[in-house]
Design goal:
about 120 residues; alpha+beta; Arc Repressor Mutant, subunit A; three-stranded antiparallel beta sheet; 4 helices; about 15% strand
């Protein structure tokens, strides 16, 4: 199996929402802080581009899973800070459970004798 050293992992649809909600569990963050947490938390494997991150943040805000407010950053710049809402925490629990079930199913499939001939 040949692996490209800089190969990017593509996210399944809906996975970005789960990742953002998880990033906000430890407290409010602005967009750049969210993207940095995802990057470092995934050992640099996941990099969320601005063109994907901000539309996802706006979508999660419309759904009521996160809330945004303006604040001043440590660099004295005005930034929009996002925080998890109660319904966002509930959604995160649901999405984690779903992801864990999918992960178990994929692991079983990839370890099955039928999957070894690939």
């Amino acid at each position: 199996m040949n692996e490209l050293p800089n190969a990017r992992l593509e996210l399944l649809q809906g996975t970005l929402d789960l990742i953002i909600l998880q990033a906000l569990v430890w407290g409010p963050r602005h967009g750049y802080g969210i993207s940095q947490m995802i990057r470092t938390g995934s050992d640099e494997l996941l990099r969320i581009e601005t063109g994907s991150l901000y539309p996802a943040l706006h979508r999660l805000e419309r759904k009521g899973w996160i809330k945004a407010s303006w604040t001043t950053s440590e660099n004295n710049q005005r930034v929009k800070e996002y925080r998890l809402t109660t319904s966002g925490r509930k959604r995160l629990v649901e999405e984690r459970s779903r992801w864990e079930r999918l992960s178990v199913a994929m692991t079983k499939l990839l370890r099955s004798p039928e999957g070894e001939g690939a």
